[in-house]
């Protein structure tokens, strides 16, 4: 009896590990294929059946990618966009989340319902009015245009509201008794208690902003004002695409995010765990 239970437990464990190993292979394979393709020639990349390894390992595709795109400008634009989107999302979402969670004012529930409605709507429906606003103000082809859609985050407001809801009201009341006004209570007492939630929001805002393609491609048509994702999209030809060069450019575009992950790996993991827990 014990041996059969042990055998079934072992089979179940093997099955679970096999499932996760297969999942990891499926997720990693595109990156491995991108890496290998970046060293191939156009002819090699179009062969059927495809060759797994390139015939010769050379850096010509990376040189062509760097010659085709102003990578320094793309890196700068992407870094500025990500930085300001993260700052705006964390600051404004924190203030709005605190107001919805702890303050009492008329229309609070209605306003928060509108925030939830905005979360349910696809972001694509806001592209046309946002672009028209920026175009009429002459703000296209600018860093502000890249940051504009991320200044206010409905998800961030909801996420941090939930974090503030988990803080007992007695803490704020104690701050009031100690002589703090509303702003001091928020800045000195309540906000520090949600640092972990703010870090999680910052992580996911940065990841989303870094990979955003549609909005930067529409609002900034000047190549020197594009981001890495929209700049790479210009490598796609109308009738044909040099896939090895595009894969080389994609690898170069991945470098900042990989470096960021290596330095802030703990924050990334905590952010994923916290968001999953919420």
List the helices and strands in order: HHHHHHHHHHHHHHH
The CATH architecture designation of the domain at 69-234 is Orthogonal Bundle
Evaluate the radius of gyration. Answer: 24 Å
Largest beta sheet, briefly?
Answer: none
Shape: globular
The helix content is: over 70%
Beta-strand fraction estimate: under 5%
Structural class: mainly alpha
Per the CATH scheme, the topology name of the domain at 69-234 is: MetI-like fold
Count of alpha and pi helical runs: 15
Residue ranges: pLDDT <50 for 5 or more in a row? none
What's the CATH class label of the domain at 69-234?
A: Mainly Alpha
Question: What's the average pLDDT?
Answer: 88
CATH homologous superfamily of the domain at 69-234, by name? MetI-like
Distance, first to last CA? 41 Å
Question: How does this structure look, described?
Answer:
It comes from Candidatus Lachnoclostridium pullistercoris. This is Carbohydrate ABC transporter permease. Residues 75-264 form the ABC transmembrane type-1 domain. Keywords: Cell membrane, Membrane, Transmembrane, Transmembrane helix, Transport. By secondary structure, the protein is mostly helical. The protein has a domain at 69-234: MetI-like (MetI-like fold, Orthogonal Bundle). Helix content is 73%, strand content 0%. The protein contains 15 helices and no strands. It has helices spanning 2-37, 42-45, 60-68, 71-102, 108-120, 127-137, 143-147, 154-165, 169-177, 182-190, 195-211, 214-219, 228-233, 243-263, 265-277. Helix 4 packs antiparallel against helix 11 (195-211), helix 9 (169-177) packs across helix 10 (182-190) and helix 11 (195-211) crosses helix 15. The longest helix has 36 residues, at 2-37. The mean pLDDT is 88.
């Amino acid at each position: 009896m014990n041996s059969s239970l042990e055998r079934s437990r072992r089979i179940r464990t093997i099955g679970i590990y096999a499932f996760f190993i297969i999942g990891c292979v499926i997720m990693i394979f595109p990156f491995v294929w991108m890496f290998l393709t970046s060293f191939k020639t156009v002819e090699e990349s179009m062969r059927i059946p495809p060759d797994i390894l390139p015939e010769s390992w050379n850096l010509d595709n990376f040189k062509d990618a760097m010659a085709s795109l102003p990578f320094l400008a793309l890196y700068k634009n992407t870094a500025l966009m990500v930085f300001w989107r993260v700052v705006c999302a964390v600051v404004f979402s924190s203030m709005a989340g605190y107001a919805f969670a702890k303050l009492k004012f008329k229309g609070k529930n209605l306003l928060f319902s509108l925030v939830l409605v905005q979360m349910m709507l696809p972001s694509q429906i806001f592209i046309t009015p946002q672009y028209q606003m920026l175009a009429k103000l002459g703000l296209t082809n600018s860093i502000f245009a890249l940051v504009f859609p991320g200044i206010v985050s409905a998800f961030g407001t909801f996420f941090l509201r939930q974090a503030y809801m988990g803080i007992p009201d007695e803490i704020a009341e104690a701050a009031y008794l100690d002589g703090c006004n509303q702003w001091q209570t928020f800045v000195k007492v309540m906000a520090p208690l949600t640092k972990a939630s703010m870090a999680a929001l910052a992580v996911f805002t940065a990841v989303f902003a870094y990979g955003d393609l549609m909005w930067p491609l529409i609002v900034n048509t000047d190549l020197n004002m594009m981001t890495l994702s929209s700049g790479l999209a210009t490598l796609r030809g109308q009738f044909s695409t040099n896939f090895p060069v595009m894969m080389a450019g994609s690898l170069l575009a991945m470098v900042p995010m990989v470096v960021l992950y290596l330095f802030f790996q703990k924050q990334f993991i905590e952010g994923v765990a916290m968001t999953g827990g919420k």
